[in-house]
Amino acid sequence: MTTVSNTALYDDCARSLGNQGAAALSPLRHGTLVITGGTGFVGLWMATLCAFLNDCHGFNLKLVLTARRYGRLVTAAPHLVGRADLRFVSADIRQFIEMPSETSWIIHAAGTPDSRIHLSSPMETMAVIAEGTYRILRVAEQCDNLRMMLHLSSALVYGTQPLDMASLPEDFTGTLNPAAVTSAYAEAKRYSEALCVSARSQSRTPLIITRPFTFLGPFQSLEAPWALNNFLYSALHNQPLKVLGDGRSVRSHFYGSDMAFLLLRILSGGRSGGLYNLGHPIGTTLSELAELVVRVAGVQLDIRYNTAGRQIAASRLIPDMTRCHHDFGFTSTFTLTEAIERTLAWNRRRQDEVMG
Amino acid sequence: MAGVKVAILGSGNIGADLMIKVRRSELLECTVLIGRNLSSLGLAKAQSLGIPISVEGINYIEKHPDCCDVVFDATSAASHFEHAVILSRLGKMVIDLTPAKVGEFYVPAVDFGTGLQFRNLNMITCGGQASVPIAYALGQTHTKIDYIEVISSIASRSAGPATRRNLDEYIHTTEAAIRRFSGCLTSKAILNLNPAIPCINMQTTVFAKIANPDLEAFRNKLDDVVQRVRAYVPKYEIIVGPKLDNDRVVTMVRVKGRGDYLPPYAGNLDIINCAAIAAAEDFAMHHHQLSQFTSGVRP
Amino acid sequence: MTPADTHTRIIINDPSLRDGNHAIGHQLKPEQIAAYCRIADEAGIPMVEVGHGNGIGASSLQLGLSAASDAELLNAARDNLKRSRLGVHVIPGFATIEKDIKPALDIGVDVFRIASHCTEADITERFIDYVRKRGRTAYGVLMMSHMASSDVLVEEARKMEAYGAEMVVIMDSAGAYLPHEVRTRIMALVEGLQIPLGFHAHNNLGMAVANSVAAVEAGASLLDGCARGFGAGAGNAQLEVMVAVLHKLGYHTGIDLYRVLDLGNFAENNLMSTVPTISSDSIISGIAGVFSGFLKPVQRIASQYGVDARDIFIELGRRGVVAGQEDLILEVAEQLRASGGKQ
User: Which residues of chain C does B164 touch, with a Cβ-Cβ cutoff of 8 Å?
Assistant: First the structure.
């Protein structure tokens, strides 16, 4: 069922799927997919893509989304409300008791990526990841129909990308210092990976770990002050864009529907024991990004570099996507320009909805 | 032990401490501690004491409306807005320890029965509970007070993420309470967090700008009010003043906690809990016409 | 500003009209603000900070009542700063967004320096977020920074960075540091943060300019300096001296030296009753690590109670008192008097 509010999103899904995508995802047909963190960026994109697969390709895939607050689903993704194929379960991930017995697929995406919360409430942040992951793994043991579980870790487990590495491959063990409170979230994610590997070994749970890098697209809250969020927020509110330092730091951005398709590909076609980066392999500098946002937004806005004197060491955070490309033929279908266009358009529509 | 039935929403440190205080009260009975997270320490403590627990949130009370007449809400402001509506419909007496401020400000020491006609009482803030008795005494002894200022210093360790995120609410609420209970024209509240180890006790200073201060009348009235506070906060102690300094009437009070569940240095958290218990006990006496008084219960 | 000259460029922030207020019981008037700002603007001072000594919203019986309202002072500054940016100091717990940040935004303040005690950065989150969302600049400020180790300072600074602060400024509010201590801290912060750093010195131990130089040599990008050192306690790093020294060392400030010397003259003749010196009490407060802004209330209360101001400072330092706790001075004085002088 296509409505006004999901037309653009369905177009994105169709494009990411391409001609071969539906066939590649066919193992998902008639299954039941449980997504924790169902109202986050990943959860909402997964749900949207699955709804598209049901509506336009007859997948008959049942969805169970679980998260703390139903309200967020309603405000962020109204097109998902009231669907017969989607059930929402309100729960704290740490209290999760059971999943439907027919569950065939699980995506564990619970946890907030907002670094402000990680620093203000590091103990709570770590507890949700550690206890939540443990609980989900134990609950998954009861699912006799489980074909695969996919766990979302984080690119932050690599620590700071060394300056001499062009991109981070999955076998890089990272540079994290556990004794720093700024490592709390990343250390908890490392622990979650170790828990998953243990579950695979001890309980034979079929499991794949992915490490998300930076995403963009509809459903992304612009609250947390990351570079791209700041640029988009500024463009939407007619404020000058602010780049910290000289803008030479490099980041890559993966568009939501491409991310969702790749995740479903990995989930339905990957082998237990897999470990995959999840991001875009080609980066841009922050100054290029700022200029692109201004160009795409079509507004006359200043781009201001941090006016304080010193250089900030340029940093990189880029995934090596060779493994995904080799195993799944991964490519992204949206250019950065298109991704920004579509993200701005979605945000503008929401601004209008809120005002009018 | 039969007493007025009390349910506690929120199994964090505040809720767990309230549970222990309710247990000690001769007028109250804790029928359930409701949390969100089965692995919370508060719930484990409740179980060890034989007190029923639930992780169903407000739904538990909706399903078992007879479980309680009084509900303490120690969750969050956001949750309380939701809870207040439901509990009002169920006709419960609600004592709100969150910053939601849906109901009436209540300070047991300065209430003589009027507060209990309301069904949602708000415990203001720690600075409010500590300073309102003093501000009240000033208001009772002076017809015109230009300005009252309240400065509280609390141990950094006793201020968790929720307190730190809600400093503005703390300030505005405390200022409103000061004006309400003293009749002063303007007010200001300040909060300092001090990280010193060993942890400092809560200390609150009240400055008042009054054209012709009557220190003697104020001191006498303050003595009365302080006695009333000490009935539920035993370690509430005036440590400086009242006196005049630099044209300001100064009174400093220190509050040490009882250490039931919260550590003793967290006098700021304890004073709110003690006030909440006193409010519930006031309700119990008022509405259940108990004729027995035990020592320590306010006359 | 091209990448090439960023290594030698130091931004100067001038809080004479804020920190200086401590020295005169917060009695600066709008006319003085206006006149000073005109000269500062001509001199090319990049940032001028205005307000009560403890920031906007701090006028109180606790910290001293301002002669003029925040709005009056800020408007006087705003009207007289064309090239220079207008900044304010603001402490959550004293000020609130509703009462103080909003009006300041409306007046056109450019830079909001949101300050907390050096171990309590998380109280700045909402303020930084609010300012940032409105397209203005928020800096994080860690006060009394000598009271925390380098590791803790880095942690707290990183919180501010995560909240969206564009810079973190470390304050030596007690004038307690020696240059090597400044170097260690700034180096750790440069290492641990992506955003640039600033340093704010006080002169209780005669080290303000030397500490400021140590800070830039360790990688700081911004320094606070006040005309004639006009500030709390023994005063701040003296702006004119600092500019001269920085130029001599090869740094660029964008400030015209003659004009900033004129600014110093103006300040001496029009803003202060006495030029800051390092008094005995100030030396002790520096050694005891007590907030410089306590000097006047401590001296007043000491003389009223007949106790030694220095003893009060030592005791306040022992208790680990933070900025904003001026009410404790009375308590300490009473205790000292009761115990017959030294404890």
Answer: 120, 122-123, 125
Q: In chain B, which residues have their Cβ closer than 8 Å to the Cβ of C62? A: 149, 151, 190, 205, 207
Chains that touch C (3 or more CB pairs under 8 A): A, B
The length of chain C is 343
**Are A120 and C164 inside 8 Å of each other by CB?**
no
| Whether residue C22 lies in the annotated active site | yes
Q: Which residue of B has its CA nearest to A121?
A: B161
Q: A261 with A16: CB under 8 angstroms?
A: yes
A84-116: string of b/e by CB count within 10 Å (b at 16+)? Answer: ebbebeebbbbebeebeeebbbbbbbbbbbbbb
3-state DSSP assignment of residue C163: helix
State the amino acid at position A109 in one-letter form: A
Specify the DSSP element, H or E, that contains A271: none
User: Is C194–A315 a contact, with Cβ atoms under 8 angstroms apart?
Assistant: yes
State the 10-residue block means of pLDDT for chain C, 343 residues long: 63 97 96 98 97 97 95 98 98 98 98 97 96 95 96 95 95 97 96 92 97 96 97 96 97 96 97 95 96 93 95 95 92 93 55
Cβ within 8 Å of residue C146, ≥6 positions away:
C172, C174, C176, C177, C181, C289
In this prediction the pTM is 0.91
C-alpha to C-alpha distance for A123 and A68, rounded to whole angstroms: 18
Q: What are phi and psi of C14, to 5 degrees?
A: -110, 100
A242–C162 C-beta distance less than 8 A: no
| Minimum distance, in Å, between the CA of residue A71 and any CA atom of chain C | 23
> Which listed residue (B126, B184, B199, B274) is catalytic?
B126
Express each pLDDT in B241-286 by its tens digit. 899 998 899 999 999 999 998 888 899 999 999 999 999 999 998 8
- Chain-chain contact of B156 with C120 (C-beta, under 8 angstroms): yes
Q: For chain A, give the percent of residues with pLDDT over 90.
A: 72
Token pair, residue B282, equals: 């006031």
Instruction: Answer yes or no: are the C-beta atoms of B205 and B250 closer than 8 Å.
Output: yes
Cα distances (Å, whole numbers) of residue B280 to A1, A269, C74: 54, 60, 48
- As for the ipTM of the complex, it is 0.92
Strand partners of residue B104: B121
On whether any CB of chain B is under 8 Å from the CB of C163, the answer is no
